Backbone:
């Protein structure tokens, strides 16, 4: 019998991708240079809200190196082109047209007003300064509550309101649970809080860019995008380009985090300009432009009410959100809060649930998906309010969680939102995390410090979480009115020499997919890891797909690859039987070989591939091909989970927060490559911690982004972050054959509340029960000085005042 | 203006505009696109190269300032098909994801190790303060730098020599 080959899945393989990345042989979009290529630069509005009175481009047109200057009327004479929104969340959702370039009015600072095309990028940028635009300023609308108040000035006058849509879910009405109002009115304990999810910048390190080449028989566009396939379809629909005449390539992409999920006006401008000029055109933005004009994330006001019995059984949860869309509907930004709607109940058995979200227009940059998209916001709210409830009840916050979570033996479990969680073991992850963290020891130290009045106080923050990964079952997306499906496509080409090409519709941008997918294929086909080549990110070679977001590359894309591999094996089997002169039923396939059961007689998949190539001796009627195609549409999401514990030291004299230790145990089901999983968790933690402590956009009252560069927007460096202790438990997903659950968002989702809970725990005895994010030293210090009042009871107004005063000193928006 | 710069061992003489930044000269004129641009405020470190053996952010140096100097970029680190020990350590420790910050991180790490051949965790973190990474959370980068330090310590073999060699490439000449 053949020796068993060690499985690839589960191995901490060093990444295939690294070689080119560590030697500088990467192909970023900005590296692409084509003969005769021109450079495009975009003139952006300095005003957040203004009528455009006139644009004079004559001086720019005669500036050195300038080939052409376009305004909206030149690019889009009929004013017919509107940027797409793929998620009409309600039938009556407002959908103001977002033009490629603003024609009559600008609605956020940074909106494109004109483009210059020149021989060099420097010349194009120089000429921007020669364009003379006369603006007539309109009222700036930054605050969501003010925006929806009666008589508020409107972002889009013709829409009649700044409310885009109101989306609701009620467990009583849906029949998935009880009535929340009854739960709250009859509850022994009710806690109410307002949380703010500040606006964040995804801040991928590679700025956005695209290159369009119109000189062949089709248009080719390279773009630093997460979604080449969606971009192609949307470009075709938006601009009327026949889809088969457009090829979109996402070469190496330097990070996305949801921030490269959009279909960009700049991409549409580049396509239009390149077609008009008949020459290749490159657009490459500066960091300041990215900060201003690439979409932002989060930005919600969350009013949360939780009800419980005195002994700690949660009875109801009510969530009312205001979500800031910015000036227009992004590609999927409208649906971000809706993704979150299903996660507020988190890992808990909550019997009654009500969710309502109002999407609001303001004169700010659009918001759209950002790592976790809706789910971090939801997890933050529930994990913060669970801590507040624990304080109200006088119990340990971990005990309160244990009392309410879904027990291991209760899976599969259908939640109050109607989702069925396939598997989970919250007990195991929590026990492991507690042990790694020394929970009891730290609690004892906390007591001591509190008693001694140490100027540095210790706090312990807990965050348990689950999320829906693997976006998504197409019918579920359909039921939520999302405009596309959630399937993924894969194809496998067995080459005559036994090497394997795998084509996937998912599109990597730094996660290590080439490595993980190769491991899967190596196991499925019994070929060497090195013998697998992954082809992705080019609509010509990977001709259909749904791209990468929502941790779907493995649990949807990876399964499509498994399905394609199964088809290859099925195709090879009759050929193997023919070559070995036996019945198909006598064959078994393992480690890349078909073996006649109970014998040594075998043939390998590589031999069959060569035989197929020669095609001299195939069974009658068999097509000479081992290639296969598969499309996988999941039946359910997957639900990774984890327990995160954070110990924070807070200097009560300066407000400085130091993370003393951070421990997390994540359960992502089967880990295809534990090394990659660990790396994803680290990166996610950094992003989530950054939301808690460092990052947040700010605007001045004129609507100008005052955190518009890396000098003002505090992206943490290595010196700002601690080392993390990460570990895993492994509860396989039961909804896919790999048992994988997805990991891309875990760290980001769970860490923000863990850190904020820790800081508040450290200073709670000063009367503090909330501090607005980011928890800057100034805000923490101020909270320690003044305490905050409970926002739960009738003193709501008072709490608002407290937060307001923190706000003022923190200097936030 | 006419400048001569030796980049990764090759001498280039070119006309440049006075305002041209070194990073743009490298990328656009010399085709050295391994060095990338991540910001316009000299905050991200993605463009870090060695100028006469010391790390600089090449977006904050004018090309004319590099006249007569030696520049080492990420593309000039591997020699005879052998990765620099820091490159290898980044690979071994999974210290990169999208890889956009990586050339700058590696160049900065080499400079850091030249100054301090055995840095503790805090020293590495502080030494990399000027280089931003959005993907890794830095933990594996820190691990890689310390791993490289081990591999390059005296007695760790011929690779140990590489660090000083790289550091002084401009001074000693090739
Ligand atoms: S590009 Fe030079 S520091 Fe950012
Ligand atoms: S690896 Fe992506 S920014 Fe560092």
Residues:
């Amino acid at each position: 019998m053949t020796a068993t080959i060690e499985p690839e899945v589960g191995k901490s393989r060093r990444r295939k991708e690294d070689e080119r990345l560590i030697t500088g042989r990467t192909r970023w979009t900005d590296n692409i240079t084509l003969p005769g290529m021109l450079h495009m630069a975009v003139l952006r509005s300095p005003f957040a809200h203004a009528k455009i009175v006139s644009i004079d481009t004559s001086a720019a047109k005669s500036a050195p190196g300038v080939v052409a200057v376009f305004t909206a009327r030149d690019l889009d004479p009929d004013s017919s082109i509107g940027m797409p929104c793929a998620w009409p969340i309600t039938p009556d959702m407002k959908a103001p047209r977002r033009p490629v370039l603003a024609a009559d009015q600008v609605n956020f600072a940074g909106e494109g007003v004109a483009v210059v095309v020149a021989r060099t990028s420097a010349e194009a940028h120089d000429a921007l300064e020669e364009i003379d635009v006369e603006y007539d300023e309109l009222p700036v609308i930054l605050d969501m509550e003010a925006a929806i108040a009666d008589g508020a000035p409107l972002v889009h006058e013709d829409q009649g309101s700044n409310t885009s849509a109101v989306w609701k879910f009620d467990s009583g009405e849906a029949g998935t649970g009880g009535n929340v109002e009854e739960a709250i009115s009859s509850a022994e304990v009710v806690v109410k809080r307002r949380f703010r999810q500040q606006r964040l910048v995804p801040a991928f390190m590679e700025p956005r860019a695209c290159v369009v080449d119109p000189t062949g028989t089709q248009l080719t566009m390279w773009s630093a995008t997460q979604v080449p396939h969606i971009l192609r379809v949307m470009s075709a629909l938006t601009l009327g380009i026949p889809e088969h005449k457009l090829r979109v390539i996402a070469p190496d992409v330097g990070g996305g985090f949801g921030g490269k999920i959009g279909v960009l006006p700049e991409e549409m401008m580049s396509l239009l300009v390149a077609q008009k000029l008949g020459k290749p055109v490159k657009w490459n933005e500066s960091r300041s432009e990215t900060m201003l004009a690439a979409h932002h994330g989060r930005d919600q006001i969350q009013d949360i009410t939780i009800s419980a019995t005195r002994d700690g059984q949660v009875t109801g949860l009510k969530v009312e959100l205001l979500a800031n869309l910015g000036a227009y509907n992004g590609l999927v930004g409208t649906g971000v809060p809706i993704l979150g709607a299903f996660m507020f109940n988190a890992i808990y058995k909550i019997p009654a649930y009500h969710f309502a979200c109002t999407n609001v227009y303001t004169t700010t940059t659009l918001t759209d998906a950002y790592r976790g998209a809706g789910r971090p916001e939801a997890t933050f709210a529930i994990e913060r309010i669970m801590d507040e409830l624990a304080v109200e009840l006088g119990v340990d916050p971990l005990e309160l969680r244990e009392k309410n979570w879904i027990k291991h033996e209760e899976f599969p479990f259908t939640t109050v939102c109607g989702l069925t969680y396939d598997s989970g073991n919250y007990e195991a992850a929590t026990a492991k995390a507690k042990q790694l963290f020394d929970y009891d020891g730290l609690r004892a130290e906390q007591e001591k410090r509190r008693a001694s009045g140490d100027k540095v106080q210790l706090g312990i923050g807990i965050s348990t979480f689950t999320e829906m990964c693997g976006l998504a079952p197409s019918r579920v997306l359909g039921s939520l009115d999302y405009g596309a499906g959630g399937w993924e496509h894969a194809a496998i080409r067995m080459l005559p020499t036994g090497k394997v090409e795998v084509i996937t519709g998912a599109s990597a941008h730094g996660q290590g997919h080439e490595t993980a997918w190769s491991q899967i294929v190596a196991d499925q086909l019994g070929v060497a890891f090195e013998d697998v080549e992954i082809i992705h990110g080019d609509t010509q070679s990977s001709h259909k797909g749904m791209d990468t977001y929502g941790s779907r590359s493995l649990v949807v894309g990876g399964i499509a690859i498994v399905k394609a591999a199964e088809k290859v094996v099925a195709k090879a089997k009759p050929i193997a039987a023919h070559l070995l002169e036996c019945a198909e039923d006598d064959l078994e396939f393992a480690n890349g070989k078909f073996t006649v059961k109970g014998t040594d007689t075998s043939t390998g998949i590589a031999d069959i591939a060569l035989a197929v190539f020669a095609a001299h001796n195939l069974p009658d009627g068999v097509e000479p091909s081992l290639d296969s195609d598969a499309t996988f549409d999941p039946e359910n999401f997957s639900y990774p989970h984890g327990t995160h514990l954070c110990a924070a030291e807070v200097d009560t004299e300066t407000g400085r927060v130091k993370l003393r230790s951070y421990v997390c145990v994540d359960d992502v089901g089967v880990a295809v490559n534990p090394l990659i999983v660990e790396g994803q968790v680290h990166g996610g933690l950094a992003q989530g911690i950054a939301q808690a402590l460092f990052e947040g956009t700010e605007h001045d009252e004129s609507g100008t982004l005052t955190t518009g560069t890396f000098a003002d927007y505090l992206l943490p460096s290595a010196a700002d972050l601690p080392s993390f202790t990460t570990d895993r438990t492994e509860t396989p997903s039961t909804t896919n054959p790999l048992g994988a659950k997805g990991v891309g968002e875990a760290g980001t989702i769970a860490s923000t509340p863990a850190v904020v809970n820790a800081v508040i725990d450290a200073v709670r005895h000063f009367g503090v029960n909330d501090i607005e994010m980011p928890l800057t030293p100034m805000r923490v210090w101020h909270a320690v000085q003044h305490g905050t009042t409970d926002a739960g009871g009738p003193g709501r107004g008072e709490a608002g005042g407290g937060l307001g005063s923190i706000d003022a000193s923190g200097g936030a928006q | 203006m006419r400048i001569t710069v030796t980049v990764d061992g090759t001498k280039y003489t070119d006309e440049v505009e006075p305002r041209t930044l070194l990073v743009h000269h490298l990328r656009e004129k010399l085709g050295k696109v391994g060095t990338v641009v991540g910001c316009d405020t000299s905050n991200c470190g993605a463009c870090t190269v060695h100028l006469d053996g010391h790390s600089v952010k090449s977006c904050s140096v004018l090309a004319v300032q590099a006249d007569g100097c030696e520049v080492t970029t990420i593309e000039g680190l591997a020699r005879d098909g052998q990765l620099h020990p820091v490159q290898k350590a980044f690979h071994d420790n999974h210290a990169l994801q999208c890889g956009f910050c990586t050339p700058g991180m590696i160049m900065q790490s080499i400079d850091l190790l030249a100054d301090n051949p055995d840095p503790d965790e805090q020293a590495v973190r502080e030494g990399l303060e000027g280089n931003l990474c959005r993907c890794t959370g830095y933990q594996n980068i820190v691990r890689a730098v310390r791993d490289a330090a081990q591999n390059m310590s005296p007695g760790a073999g011929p690779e140990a020599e590489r660090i000083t060699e790289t550091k002084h490439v401009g001074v000693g000449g090739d």
Remarks:
- The pocket of FE2/S2 (inorganic) cluster (ligand 2) is lined by residues A 205, 255, 510; B 96-102, 133-136 (CB under 6 Å).
